[in-house]
Specification:
250 residues; alpha+beta; 10 strands
């Protein structure tokens, strides 16, 4: 039996979590899921109560209600991705290995039948979290979902937008969304050849292709390709800069 009052979440004691879980189970309201996210994975931070909720989330991931299952998988993926943070919950990957295995099996089932691009990318990121892939389990959906990564140039330190899709595939230091297209200084991205992809890039590209997500696979060749800073003309690996900027925040 979980002693919730002894655990903590973003706002203090976790004594309120059982009632919230019970409400979500009987009342699939997006606002209630937002409340649970805010308490258990506040801006990516996790707490002792976050991992105590994994058995419930694993059970909910098996729900016949797809919306409930996907919400559970997305939150559980974000929580497990934070396993390396200080949280006072011990070796959570060992303690919750059975729950994580259940979640991984469930996310694989739902991934293949994702209803749209956004759901697919979120579930793919959760899969990486359950598998213990650091960095990309927190950063994949951020960039692919928003169709841009914000990185810093390794040469001059300028903050850059790496744009992935509409309105194109390019790198710029300007706020392109608020500027006349003709006035934005950009450099086209140079996608990696699928045959040259290695490691996690090759794996993610292969998963997307196998799932028939060709647009996602195409975007991934740019994520694992190269860009040029418009300010100083430094060439850099997009994935390396995403990884470097992620590491600097940990």
């Amino acid at each position: 039996m979980t002693d919730w009052p002894r655990l903590s979440h973003a706002y203090g004691s976790a004594e309120d979590i059982p009632a919230l879980l019970a409400r979500i189970a009987s009342e699939p309201d997006p606002e209630l899921w937002n409340d649970l996210w805010s308490a258990l994975c506040h801006q990516g931070s996790v707490y002792s109560a976050s991992f105590a909720a994994l058995p419930w989330l694993a059970g909910m991931a098996g729900s016949e209600d797809r919306g409930q299952a996907v919400n559970a998988l997305n939150l559980a993926g974000a929580i497990v991705a934070g396993a390396g943070q200080p949280h006072g919950a011990g070796d959570v990957r060992t303690e919750h290995s059975a729950d994580i295995a259940t979640l991984l099996a469930s996310v694989n089932r739902h991934l293949r039948t994702a209803t749209d691009r956004t759901e697919y990318i979120g579930l793919l990121e959760s899969r990486l979290g359950f598998e213990g892939v650091e960095g990309w389990s927190e950063n994949l959906a951020w960039g692919l979902g928003n169709k841009e990564y914000e990185v810093s140039c390794p040469g001059c330190g300028t903050d850059l937008f790496v744009v992935l899709g509409e309105p194109g595939f390019f790198c710029t230091g300007e706020d392109y969304a608020l500027t006349d297209d003709d006035g934005v200084d950009t450099r086209p991205l140079r996608p990696a050849s699928p045959a040259d992809l290695e490691g996690i890039g090759r794996r993610l590209h292969g998963i997307a292709l196998a799932d028939g997500r060709h647009e996602v696979a195409h975007a991934l060749t740019h994520v694992f390709g190269n860009a040029t800073c418009p300010d100083c003309e430094t060439d850099f690996s997009v994935a390396d800069r995403v990884g470097a900027d992620w590491a600097s925040t940990r």
